[in-house]
Structure formats: structure tokens, C-alpha cells
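## retry 2 of 3
previous attempt timed out at serialization; input unchanged, resubmitting
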Amino acid sequence: QVQLVESGGGLVQAGGSLRLSCAASQRTSSTYIMGWFRQAQGKEREFVASTKWSGSNSDYADSVKGRFTISTSLIRRTVYLQMNSLKPEDTAVYYCASRAEGSSEYINWGQGTQVTVSS
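## retry succeeded, writing output
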């Protein structure tokens, strides 16, 4: 079973930056697409960004376009989310997830990492 472990969350002031990491225990068919999601308190979980391990076909939520960048390291089996120009509304628990090619369902999930942006 694939394990995804996030790290890099924390407290930052508005306008600051953070980089989240997601280390995958292995690459399988179920990790073809890697994604980041977030869930703010009292709200539903929402998509943030996704990419293939090659770094191609990256996709972003409109709310983070131009501020967040998703990238990968094949050697480290790690996916990153560089977050710049952070806003208080970016405060949430951020989750890493993966899905198979051709599937819309993310089946592997990490435990989440808290990101708090103060105003």
C-alpha cells in the first residue's frame, strides 16, 4: 500500500511563502497523478493542484494560479507545493493524494499538514 507523508506546514504571515513536501513510499499505477488538496475549518475539501511525475499536465485551482507551483522529484519520490504570496484564506489542512491514470478518484491520501496564514 502506498503511503504519502506530508511535511512543511506551519505559521506564516500574509504575503509570505511556504513549501510543502509529500514523500511517497513507492511509485505505482495508483500514483500516476499526484495532487494537493486543502480543507479549511468548517468547509469542504477542495482541489489545489495536480501533476504527473514527469511534471507535465499540471493543473491548478483558480484561487492559487500564479501563486502556487507544484513540482516533483523522481529521485526523492517527492512532490512539492511551493506557495507564495500567501493569504489568510489559504489557511487550511493541506493533503497530498494520488490517483491512477484515467481515474478521477484519488485513492491514496496523506495525513495532512496544517498551514496557517496570519493577517
